[in-house]
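Task: encode each sequence below as structure tokens.

Item 1
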Amino acid sequence: MKTSMLAAIALCATLFAESQTPEIRLGIIGTDTSHVTAFTRLLNDKSDPAHVQGARVVAAFKGGSPDVESSRTRVDKFAAELKDRWGVEFVDSIEALASKVDAVLLESVDGRPHLEQVRPVFKAKKRVFVDKPFAASYRDAREIVRLSRDAGVPFFSSSSLRYAADLQAIRTSEKHGGIQGAFTFGPENLEPHHPDLFWYGIHAVEMLYTLLGPGCEQVTRVRTDSADTVVGRWKDGRIGTMRGLIQGKQDYGAVAFGAKAVLATPVPMTSNYRGLLVEIVKFFQTGVPPVDPAETLEIIAFMEAAELSKARGGAPVPLADVTR
């Protein structure tokens, strides 16, 4: 009886503390990706079993890229759902958005405008999550990191696949005895305004970095009409390989090669947006990004070096060729 009463008191205290913590008001930039409706549902719908507490989407700037088909054909549809179903207020500028919110989700599906879209966010001193692709070039990515540092405003960027439960399970397992190498794979749909891996290939690259961490020095790429393979050599001698699936079955998965065991995710791998959103809300609350900006920048350098390797007929390319 006493134990039950203590548990009930603890639960009441937790609920009271949550009720006293004001929700973070979020603004969305770019309504041309399905992420905006999925994220808003998980954040705003308290009846959803997967509801993420602590933040709520209240405003949005539509944005959109007329020369990107997946933007042009979806931006109005997703905007309408945010407005009609969730009561999200729409504004005519990013500056106006920043004045109405506590933090920002930069969701534009096109990575090219991210640099210019994030400038007024940093100027307004609002923390920001930048969805994939973080940028459409290493040059833009490096400038975003510089702007963040100079403004003293942190950002966070990640693929949702980093926080997939199946991937995290093999990353944190004690069975492998230390990950000595990794292999990841996922769909590689292309978009003509972005380097090959920046569009969907970034998911498999992010999974690779989730398992191995930063420290890649050189990449080598082989691409055919059926598949794309990038092999990275880490400075400590580990090898990481990502395979972009172009033809055939499109699934995500990973293998961790350990000192004591080889562990693999199920195929298909289970993934959803909740894990990422939990990390986003925590970041907005604390200001501490769960992925270091240097790692995010290295992921972009990895993908751009892979583009150079393709252009050089599969020759090895040091990441320094991109970063210097």
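Item 2
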Amino acid sequence: MLSSAQKIIIKAALGVGLDNVSISRLIEPKAIHEVNFPVKMDNGEIKLFKGYRVQHNNNLGPFKGGIRFHPNVSHDEVQALATLMSIKCAVAGIPYGGGKGGVVVDPKKLSETELERLSRAYVNAIANCIGPEVDVPAPDVNTNSKIMEWMVEEYVKNHKSQITNDKTKSNYLRATFTGKPVDKGGTLGRTEATGRGGVIILSRLIGTKLNKKLKIKDKKLTVAVQGFGNVGYYFAKIAVEDGFKVVAVSDSHGGVFVDDGLSPHLTLNCKKEKGSVSGCYCRGSVCDLKFGKSISNEELLELPVDVLVPAALENAINRDNMKKIKAKIIIEMANGPVSEEAYEYLVKNGKIIVPDVLANSGGVSVSYLEWYQNMNDEVWTEQKVNGRLEEIMQKAFDAIWSKSVAKKIPLKQAAFEVAIERIIKKW
């Protein structure tokens, strides 16, 4: 993952004429923090855990990136993710750099009290290198708003002395973390933000001259979404609300195809009852077997739809299935859902691929809006948050689309070039 991320950056950096020294500055992180910290287990045993916080680049603002709890967390993985966060924040045009954190742990093997102690201990271990104007963590794999609540409580408890006379607002220290519960300084609109941002980008893409090339001007676009977690569900829900026709969704157990267009909300309710979307043929206000058929994840990727949305797994589209992809447009809502080889093949064959650093940047964009509200002691309506998100996403798309058209390069390369140009302006 690290070498792949660096390879993309090097290619884009060469595309904007950077020398080797400048490229090295882009690739190498500013700081790598590796910590070992003790946590008391419920049985009284003390266990030592390893954690990381990699701070890649802060030219545009505080380091920004999630914290993941996973047994496979490693230095290289966290560094790669921090690197890509620098690009993503620059692509979105928000005043953040890139960072990432992680703890080597299987949280499923911990009780809730052990998980809380682990979360608080990790924060104390990295406390000297984070802060509302230094480094702003957020949820990631296996972390959530509750864990952010524990972390921000611990940070505030131990850092109240940092508040000076000109920083007496109650939410200043809370701004150290985003993705918090709404009643703990979080923001409305955060849960839907990543999926909503993806739909905003799709709508903006359709509004370009591309619609004539793809012959989609006078019909409702069909959409298939692989992955029906938070991101996939909200993408599907908001896409339907905006007039798109979602005909297929899937989760890890399989999927459904409903030719007339499915109801994402009813499908989610059905999934909660059954444990999977498989068998949930929901259309309008009713679920009925006659409405559709079951499909596998592989079959969903190969459907003859206008828009394919891989929102689940890395490398879901790869050398084994790339020649079977029929969709005209691919919106990368997962991180790295199209392998390098498949990407090159599909682009050469006329597919339009919106890269993950743009497509799924709605989440970090609303994290920025949460941070902004905390820093300014404000509380916004959901309508205002969504309006600001739309402005950010449309502006980000327009800059990348313009670069892509002007240089006749794929959107991914254009996105990285835009990001790099913004970062190096602050050197």
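Check on item 2: The domain at 29-182 is CATH 3.40.50.10860 (Rossmann fold). The longest strand covers residues 46-57.
End of task.
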